[in-house]
Specification:
disordered N terminus
Amino acid sequence: MEPEQREEQQFGSFITGSPTASTDEKTMGMLAHLGSIAGLVVGAGFLGWAVPLFLMLTKGKDSSFVRSHAVESLNFQITTSLAMAVSVVLMCVGIGFLLALIVVIGNIVFTIIAGLKANEGELYRYPVNLRLVK
């Protein structure tokens, strides 16, 4: 069985048992992604992981849809934080400035795409992501 099919079988709410996400679940899934941008802005670039972690720990217990989006977003924010740390080190050489710009633009673009997919009720996997949180 393909991994995507397995995800679709496990997808659904623990509350209703429905195979499709409710409006609240879609909103929370979208918030898991787009809230990370707000966390980056409010936290001066350091709190992008806060909103996905909060949603994973609170709403993730009730909905597998919200949990999967929160975990995916949290992993992506950890990945971009590591990429930014590498770019800060490479700023001594000069190439780090370009790398930091690429990471910031990629973070914003992929996070918006993921938020839109979550709002449509689809599961989204970031193309570049270290899957550290399961």
